[in-house]
Each structure stands twice: as structure tokens, then as C-alpha cells.
Amino acid sequence: MLETSLSQLEQLVGDLVQQNQQLLNSNAQLSAELAQVKDDNENLQLSVLEHEEKQGTTVARIQALVDRATSVSAVSA
Description:
Elements: H1 2-76
């Protein structure tokens, strides 16, 4: 009986060690993927900020053109 219990315990410990290794591998892979996603997210946020800045500049230029056209129209009338 003791031999059977010891054998079962050895098998369970072996299974747990194997499962732990699989979990460690999964954890390492998920950590690497998370780091990549964080990097991608940061790049996307910077890109959005750059686009917003360009859009703001474009809007200001268009508004200046509209103002000029409006002032020329007012003078001409």
C-alpha cells in the first residue's frame, strides 16, 4: 500500500512539474506578446497625436484662406 501511494505521489508530482513548465512557457509567451502590444499601442498613440497636430495645422490654414476670401469679398462688395 505504501509503495502504491508513493508511486501515485511520484506520478502526481511529475504531472505537476510538467504542468508548471507548460504554464511557465505560456506565461513567457504571453509576456512577450503583451510587451509587443504595448509597443504597438504606444506607436499608434504617437501616430494619432501626429495626425491630430497635422489636422489642426490644416484646419488653421483653411480657416486663414476662408478669412482671406471673406475679407476680399467684403472689400469687393
